[in-house]
Every structure is written in C-alpha cells, then in structure tokens.
C-alpha cells in the first residue's frame, strides 16, 4: 500500500515521457552519423558567419568614455589593457536589479560563471571586461563572493545608452589602432547564451581566432592552430610544441 502510494506520487512529480525508440547499436550509430553530418554543416556555417563578421565595416568611437576601476578613473582605451581587441559585457548589477545588493542579475551571473580562463583570450591580444553601474566596492564584494576574476568596471556616463545595453545585457566588441577605438560587433539577447568559451569570444572579434585555416582579410595576423595553445599559467614563456 505504501509502495503504491509512493509510485503514484512519483508519477505526479515525473509524468510519463514519450521517449524515442530503443534500437540496436548499429541503428543507433546510423542515427548518430545522420546528425553528425548536420552538426558538421552547422560548424562550417558558423565559421563562414565568423568570416563575414571579420569583414564587417567598423564604427569609429569618437566620444571619450569614462569608467571607475579598482585604481580609480579610467578611459575606454584603458580597458584594452594595451591589447588590440576588447570585449565589454554589460552586466546588470546595481540598485533596482533583482538580487541587489547580494547578487547581480541571474542571467548575467550565469553567464559570468561560464567565462573561461582569461589567459587564453589574452594570448590572442584580446581583453574581456565587465561593466555595470554598481560602485567598485559593491563589484569587489560580488566578485569575491562569486569567485569571479574578470576585470569589472563602473559605468560613469552614457556608455550603456550609446551602445544599446542600457536596458538589456550584451557584448560590445572593439578594436584599438593606436589611440583610435572602433566598434566592430555587438552580440545580445540569445546570442549571449553561447558566450563564455575562448572560441565564442574570439569568433566575435574583428581578428577572429587568428589561425591559418580561417578565411580572413589579407594581412590579418594568423598562426598555426594548436601551436600557440599553452597552459594558462605559462603563456609568459614560449609554448613548447607537442611532439605528436
């Protein structure tokens, strides 16, 4: 009687699912190969889209934006940390956002948890930074609680309004040519779901992954794939080549 009651409660909690058929190993492999062909086509399509992105026109950023950083006031140019490329994610952590003051936006926080080790991104001359309207003291407290290490700045002016992230999250991508800054791409809405890996970030940039197999404009920096990869704590030293 007790077991029957438990079974009934379990069925209420987990309704019966209409699952796919159970097949032999050979049939399963055939089905898997059919999907694999579609997955490879999707990968090639994604590579082609990234190649188009590298050919998009650039927008000159003429306004001098200011942020607060851990050491005081900084400019948009400073956010590059002397690298050529910059990705700025507008995260919602500030008064009025659900979770304040203990947490940032749940979606932005989930995205922050996905961010890979930044050393690999930096090795491709690219910096990732977060920006919110919370104070630096609040940001430092949140980063310590959540164990996040990305640079995170306080927006002081109309940066979020000017770049389409005053009401919703998004990644703005920039390129630096000396003292000049250009906006090269923008990803928001469901496009943000894929962000977090080094490859998703680099595919969004003007220079891409900077590997020889990529379809990039003439003169873009490119090196052999795999050979530039390194352990995240040893990029200061030259990467040793795997003998295999």
Notes on the structure:
It is a single chain. This protein has 244 residues and is an alpha+beta fold. Helix content is 33%, strand content 18%. It has an eight-stranded mixed sheet with strand order 1-8-7-4-5-6-2-3. The chain is globular and about 75 Å long.
Provide the descriptors you would attach to this structure in a database record.
8 strands; 244 residues; 33% helix; eight-stranded mixed sheet; 8 helices; alpha+beta
Number of strands: 8
How large is the share of residues in beta strands? 15-25%
| Average pLDDT over all residues | 94
Radius of gyration: 23 Å
Strand and helix order = HHEEEHEHHEHEHEEH
Low-confidence stretches: none
Strand order of the largest sheet: 1-8-7-4-5-6-2-3
What would you call the quaternary organization? single chain
Quick recap:
The mean pLDDT is 94.
List the helices and strands and how they pair.
Elements: H1 2-13, H2 25-53, E1 59-60, E2 66-69, E3 72-75, H3 76-79, E4 85-90, H4 106-114, H5 118-122, E5 126-132, H6 136-146, E6 152-155, H7 159-162, E7 170-177, E8 180-188, H8 198-203
Parallel strand pairs: 4-5, 5-6
Antiparallel strand pairs: 1-8, 2-3, 2-6, 4-7, 7-8
């Amino acid at each position: 009687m007790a077991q029957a009651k438990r079974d009934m409660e379990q069925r209420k909690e987990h309704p019966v699912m209409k699952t796919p058929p159970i097949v032999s190993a050979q049939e399963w492999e055939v089905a898997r190969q059919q999907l694999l062909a579609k997955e490879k086509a999707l990968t090639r399509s994604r590579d082609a889209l990234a190649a188009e992105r590298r050919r998009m026109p650039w927008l000159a950023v003429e306004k001098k934006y200011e942020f607060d950083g851990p050491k005081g006031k900084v400019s948009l140019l400073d956010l590059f940390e002397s690298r050529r490329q910059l990705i700025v994610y507008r995260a919602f952590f500030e008064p009025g956002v659900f979770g304040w003051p203990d947490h940032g936006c749940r979606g932005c926080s989930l995205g922050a948890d996905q961010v890979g080790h930044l050393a690999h991104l930096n090795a491709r001359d690219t910096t990732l930074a977060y920006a919110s309207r919370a104070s630096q003291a609040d940001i430092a407290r949140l980063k310590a609680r959540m164990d996040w290490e990305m640079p995170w700045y306080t927006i002081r002016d109309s940066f979020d309004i000017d770049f389409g992230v005053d009401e919703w999250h998004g990644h703005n991508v920039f390129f630096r040519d000396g003292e000049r800054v250009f906006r090269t791409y923008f990803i928001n809405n469901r496009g943000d779901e894929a962000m977090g890996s080094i490859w998703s970030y680099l595919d969004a940039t003007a220079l891409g992954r900077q590997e020889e197999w990529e379809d990039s404009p003439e003169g873009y920096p490119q090196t052999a794939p795999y050979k530039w990869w390194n352990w995240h704590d040893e990029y200061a030293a030259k990467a040793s080549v795997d003998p295999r």
